[in-house]
Amino acid sequence: MLQVTRLNQYYGSSHTLRGxxxxxxxxxxxxxxGRNGVGKTTLLKCLMxxxxxxxxxxxxxxxxITRLTPHERAALGIAYVPQGREIFARLTVEENLMMGMAxxxxxxxxxxxxxxxxxxxxxxxxxxxxxxxxxxxxxxxxIARALLSDPQLIILDEPTEGIQPSIIKDIGRVIRxxxxxxxIAILLCEQYFDFARELADRFLVLSRGEVVASGAREDMDGDxxxxxxxx
Length: 231
Ligand SMILES: Nc1ncnc2c1ncn2[C@@H]1O[C@H](COP(=O)(O)OP(=O)(O)OP(=O)(O)O)[C@@H](O)[C@H]1O
Description:
231 residues; alpha/beta; six-stranded mixed beta sheet; binds adenosine-5'-triphosphate
């Protein structure tokens, strides 16, 4: 579904992504791991088109999307939940969710009910303003909004960051359910190793803009991986 080939990116003279290769198949969850500042968010932004790639190729369902805008990528079925969530603080929960539906207006009611089932708290709070929600509730809202675009690929940037344990469990449950559904690919960028290990089919570790380790979930515990994650 997603194929990234020799992706390169720079901030000024700093070479942030160095020839990244990755693939992700339908129904698969890939964990993207690595210490702070190794280039994880930059990679996700390049995949969504928020940042242009300086070199290399991003293909989605066999189509070269390297030069497409974020909006065009969203219309093709890629959803992105950025770090820090970026929900609309002044809009209600319901209005925030409608923004997700704007990508595929025909998806509508069924999807919305699905999402309320996944995140019952959002149904309870649908008239509240996004800015009045707790961090964990905002994270749930951001994921729900992304799901309402009916994506084939969902990209999650550190969904557990700064979130209390009970909500982390809820978010994990939703990601597991999406994975078990088998019709969506999940790219999960995480610092919280145990959370990623529980959910991912495969992993990939970045260090200084390069892929330094990758493999199946069973290999995640090895020293080879831990060495690149320890602070
Ligand atoms: N807009 C920017 N301009 C210049 N340098 C940047 C910019 N954004 C990030 N960087 C630098 O690029 C490198 C990679 O940053 P990036 O945010 O992709 O890392 P990360 O692995 O996602 O880290 P974190 O987990 O802290 O978000 C870091 O050294 C960072 O300081």
